Amino acid sequence: MSPLSRLAAGTTLPVVTVVIAIIAIWYVAAVALNAPFQRDTYERAKQTDVPFSQLLSDTLVQKRPVLPAPHQVATEIWQTTVEKKITSKRSLVFHAWITLSTTLLGFLIGTSLGVLIAVGIVHSGVLDKSLMPWVIASQTIPILAIAPMIIVVLNAVGISGLLPKAMISTYLAFFPVTVGMVKGLRSPEIIHLDLMHTYSASRLETFFKLRLPYALPFLFTSMKIGIAASLVGAIIGELPTGAVAGLGARLLAGSYYGQTVQIWSALIMASVLAGCLVGMIGLIEKNVLKRMGMAA
Amino acid sequence: MTTATRQQSRLTVSNVLAWGAVALSALALVTTVFNPDITALSNPTLAVAAVLLAILGVRFGLGFAHNKVGDVALGIVTALASGFLIGATSAYPGAATTGFFCLMFAAWATAWLFIERLATWKLKGNAGKLVNLIIPILFGAWILVIWQLITVGLGVPKVLLPAPADIWLRLINSVPILWADFQQTFLKAVIIGYVLGCGSGFLLAIAVDRIPFLRRGLMPVGNLVSALPIVGIAPIMVMWFGFDWPSKAAVVIIMTFFPMLVNTVSGLAASDAMQRDLMRTYASSDWQTLFKLRLPMAMPFIFNALKINSTLALIGAIVAEFFGTPIVGMGFRISTEVGRMNVDMVWAEIAVAALAGSLFYGAVALLERTVTFWHPSVRG
């Protein structure tokens, strides 16, 4: 097997190919979408027969392109992260940090709430029958729609800052955790539960020594979904605060002033953040499960 | 733990609830219910409610009629008492005090007791299913009752949290506006975007499935994109496709595309090698294998994506409207009415959205049951 075909059989080469293809399509689309505006500009400047190569290079350096080229977004991100002071309002790191803190707070509350509800549901038949259907139904409700209301109303009564935004993250994060934990806490087999009976273990002991270890892999999987949802919640939560700070505010401000490069860089930043957060949970998962002797 | 001890501990919870109801309603009879000087005894409906709850608690606590008739009586009396309470609060809004909360918690205890009893009923077949359906409905109804009692009793400002009755009133008084918003957001943006997004994700998955190289390359990327905050693309789509519904449909298309792609591709890989070999021994072509074996096997995955997408689509359409709309649409209505502090209208819109979202999800779930009737999770 030649090295090349071995690479092709793995995932690295295919993924790299796909990513390169996406970037190539992006460039082509950028030229195609920005060309009409550029032609208009030439016409207004009474420039005729502009060579195609110049049109090409001009479409990729517009100030407010319809679709900014990847390198424009990359430059913008570089300028707003590395070259600006972190405390500056123009620094993307500053905005990302605000979004991140909301996300983490919401995720923390949401995960704790989700675990608590799951424990209640697993241990109480009444809660299982009455609450569980509502937990599922709660997600068919487009809760993001009421995000602006929650924030405006809480601001009106004097609660502002992180908490209102974090509440939206909480709402989105608790659901996957609850569902995953209920499944996980119920996953010990009857034979194991019976063993705990024969040891005359109390409910509490059974929970900590049997159910909880069993539920951990489920918990980590749902936490990965939960933290991604939590980030979405934080970004949406920043929209109605009047574009003060945070990645969501950057999106909104960008859309008000037609700063497409700013929108795209905020989007890319949010994606990187999502990737890092999910990766972080994955890392913790790997370490914890290894310690517990469950890693494959 | 043996079954007997478990039975006993469950009975204790019930007894605590029953005697708690008795104590609370007794307390309600001797304290002020509404400021400044309305006591339970000076208001006939309140007195009846308190006495009924007390009798109920004593009856249950002493162990009479622990059967289905007694349980049903529990439910009816709780409903009656809550009705009286709601009636009384609307006469004295914002004046609730100690006695009122005693009564409310007494009713809460009996309602909990009722659900607790209902959950222990062992019924077979359809009756059991019906009870399992009724319990969550009662739970939801009870939340509404508490919401109503607290908001009216404490006189919570409408700007903060309107009472369910107010929301209902607003809902039935503004049906034309709500219907126009529903048409704009749901019937145009959501449905069109959902169909196009799921359809194109599905078709690309079928195409990708035939080229293993592309599949290995696209799957990790697709998984990554599914975790990204795609809603953020909304302002760009609004810039590209204008204020009307096509921009919202575009957001919905992009949001629903990736979950469908990822799920369908992994669903197409769900059939066993053994089953595929069987198809080969039948000399079936690739397409025949696809339609007769692999697509049916992929259906649970595809429906999983359809269900996830039904929620995502509604969220995407509503959030995209925050970035600019014509003067109609659910997201538009929510953001403007919040600005005008018409919170009851916002809640009415949310009720419509919730209902639409639940029905949409329910319809997909129902379709799933008919299509994947062979799957263990449906059969069992």
From TrEMBL, chain A:
The chain crosses the membrane at residues 12-37, 94-121, 141-163, 212-236, 263-284. InterPro entries: MetI-like, MetI-like_sf. Keywords: Cell membrane, Membrane, Transmembrane, Transmembrane helix, Transport. It is found in: Cell membrane. It comes from the Bacteria. SUPFAM superfamilies: MetI-like. Residues 92-285 form the ABC transmembrane type-1 domain. It is a multi-pass membrane protein. It holds the Pfam family BPD_transp_1. PROSITE patterns: ABC_TM1. GO terms for biological process: transmembrane transport. GO terms for cellular component: plasma membrane. Belongs to the binding-protein-dependent transport system permease family. This is ABC transporter permease. It comes from Roseibium limicola. The lineage of its organism: Bacteria, Pseudomonadati, Pseudomonadota, Alphaproteobacteria, Hyphomicrobiales.
From TrEMBL, chain B:
The chain crosses the membrane at residues 12-34, 46-65, 72-92, 98-118, 130-150, 186-208, 220-243, 249-270, 312-334, 346-367. It comes from the Bacteria. One of its GO terms (biological process) is transmembrane transport. InterPro entries: MetI-like, MetI-like_sf. It is a multi-pass membrane protein. Keywords: Cell membrane, Membrane, Transmembrane, Transmembrane helix, Transport. It is found in: Cell membrane. GO terms for cellular component: plasma membrane. Residues 183-368 form the ABC transmembrane type-1 domain. Belongs to the binding-protein-dependent transport system permease family. This is ABC transporter permease.
